[in-house]
Amino acid sequence: MATGTRDMTSIVRMRSGATGFEKHITDPIMAHFFGTIQSSPITLEMLITSMASLLDRDTILTKLQYFEAVGIIEISSPADKPRGRTTIYPTCEKCPQRNYNGFALDEKTLSEEVDLSPELKKETLFLYSYGPNLNYYKMLNVASDVSNDEVCSAHHAMLDLFDPKHYAGKKLGSYARKLAIVGKVLE
Description:
mainly alpha; 3 strands; about 5% strand; elongated
């Protein structure tokens, strides 16, 4: 969330007419969370700083992603540019150049309109469907005769690609659950 179209200067605000957050403010921490956002539009950096004594950064980003997905808050760039469907993060230069021929990837899920590149959608579906049955080399898309350093490098790249912090606040649809499971499989 700290790179790409979303950075720490992105503005967090309540959606006009937002409902459903009342059930979350029974918890004092969440009451503080929503009170901070409601008081005025606030940057991600200021929100994380104000909540730092109560929640860690990743938890805050996860909560922001959830509340944006359910329509309670909105996160926008400082210039208030509307987010278009062309926003894609992360760029899939990190995606392994994998051949998906011979693997059944659900076309309906691939056509779902989410904030992920087509390559990342394919990789997510592939690892979600086949990852638990693959050996480490096939999962990481490296040859079985590569050095340990190359395996470690590929593993760290994949962990970074599926790190939840990259997807906080993004429209993920059914991919949210798949990304979480793929992250666990890679661990």
